[in-house]
Amino acid sequence: MSLQRDDAENFARVLTESLPYIQRFTGRTFVIKFGGNAMVDPALHESFARDVVLMKLVGMNPIIVHGGGPQIGTLLKRLDIQSEFVDGMRVTDEHTMDVVEMVLGASVNKEIVDSIHRNGGRAMGLTGKDGQLLLARKLRGNWGSDGQRDIGQVGEVASIDTDVLNLLLKSDYIPVIAPIAGGEDGRTYNINADLVAGKLAEVLKAEKLMLLTNVPGLMDADGNTLTGLSTAQVDQLILDGVITGGMLPKIQCALDAVKGGVVSAHIIDGTVAHAGLLEIFTDEGIGTLITNKLNG
Ligand SMILES: Nc1ncnc2c1ncn2[C@@H]1O[C@H](COP(=O)(O)OP(=O)(O)O)[C@@H](O)[C@H]1O
Ligand SMILES: CC(=O)N[C@@H](CCC(=O)OP(=O)(O)O)C(=O)O
Fold it and tell me: In this structure, which ligand is nearest to the CA of 214?
């Protein structure tokens, strides 16, 4: 069926409007965090994979870091192991760590790799252990109401070795990274996927850090999406209890990333199909934007 005249004009307009963005972003790195909440619908998996394949085809360098919190929760429940979070971090004992590694390193990771292949791209799945991409250490922090809580094998990124990523890039593979890493102490660590994405974006001096989640962005108490905030304003929102749970590590790593040299960080609603492309290819963008110019 041929396009109607209006549709054809719109289609051509959208295509030509994207040209300056394609020219600007060719060769640039985009670290995209695909949150577990944004991947619950199989149709979203497909549209996400198509977007990433398109980015790669027009010369951008997308690097995927994925979460899988809800998917880990489902298996833990089936195994009758309780899930517990403290300030957005999963309390991770030895048994929980085994489940986290199985779900993130195997099922979720391979599902994303598969969907990229189904859409014509080439992807390689890896955890932080592969090629020793990531080295972890126990996450520091004063956890729990008394600040004394030990949250177990929860890690942070101690160092990054980008050799394996460069190898994949040379062969046009899209890296799909699960946020698990070994530590120098020989233990395996569960790292919040936002933290991994933020650190990778910093080290790679990425053009954008894109955090795809299940809300339109950072929201105030009335549900309005906030954008263009200073670090001081973000700190106040945390003190006021407006930013809680999984949004805490998300906003913190977005701020750290732009302080560390990433051009911009975006918190985007990944439950809207093609949200990532809209962010890249439109002037207004969508969601919550954080840039270094706004810090202070
Ligand atoms: N101020 C806020 N604005 C938006 N979301 C918030 C805020 N405070 C807490 N949240 C919660 O953070 C969640 C996103 O974090 P998380 O559940 O870890 O998602 P993901 O799996 O995408 O990383 C939202 O679904 C929301 O419930
Ligand atoms: C320490 C910690 O909390 N790790 C996360 C890792 C997965 C993740 O970050 O998944 P989402 O992005 O879907 O939330 C977890 O165990 O759930």
Answer: 1
Closest ligand 2 atom number to CA of residue 213? 12
DSSP state of 181: E
| pTM of model > 0.90 | yes
Pick left, alpha or beta for residue 294 (phi over 0 → left; psi -120 to 50 → alpha; otherwise beta): alpha
CA distance readout (Å), 111 to 3, 39, 40, 118: 34, 10, 12, 10
ipTM score for this prediction: 0.96
Domain-wise residue ranges, the chain: 26-294
pLDDT in tens, 207-222: 999 999 999 999 998 9
Instruction: Report the C-alpha dihedral over residues 96, 101, 103, 107, rounded to 10 degrees.
Output: -160
Q: Tokens 């899988």 appear where?
A: 68
Ligand 2 centroid–CA 140 distance in Å is 17
Ligand located closest to 155 CA: 2
Pocket of ligand 2 contains residue 72 by CB under 6 Å? yes
Q: Mind listing the pLDDT tens digit for each residue in 224-262?
A: 999 887 777 888 888 999 998 889 889 989 999 998 999
Tens digits of per-residue pLDDT, 111-128? Answer: 999 999 999 999 999 999
How many residues are recorded in the chain?
296
Q: What is the CATH number of domain 26-294?
A: 3.40.1160.10
Indicate whether residue 37 lines ligand 1 (CB < 6 A): yes
73 CA closest ligand 2 atom index: 17
